[in-house]
Amino acid sequence: MIMDIEGIREHLPHRYPFLLVDRVVALTPGESIEAYKNLSINEPYFDGHFPANPVFPGVLLVEAMAQAAGILGFKTMGKTPADGSIYYLVGVDNLRFKRPCVPGDQVRLLATIVSERRGIWKFDVRAMVDGATAASATILCADR
Description:
By secondary structure, this protein is an alpha+beta fold. The chain is 19% helix and 40% strand.
């Protein structure tokens, strides 16, 4: 299943400048998602992080991975934010940053469902650039 930006906007409540998923290239409800975030020097956070050496902020990389996981969760449940459902990021475990992401990178966002119990979803997530891991974590999201 492939999703363009309109499909993504239907499944995430985020909007510019905080919508951090540009395209979904594979999605199997109940299993996994593969999505992309394209980093452009024109994005506002690069002006201050850092002017002489622009780096995509790590907290935004975690948010991008969580947004990809959120799309997977929404599609798995057959819900959208328009239905009154919202996903909150409630925990991050085992977070590791392996390499910086910089303007020009295409960040591949991967998420797989580990478990779901009483509205709390656990996902294994990974951000990759050019086949190398940029970050990985286990994240928890709550459906409310």
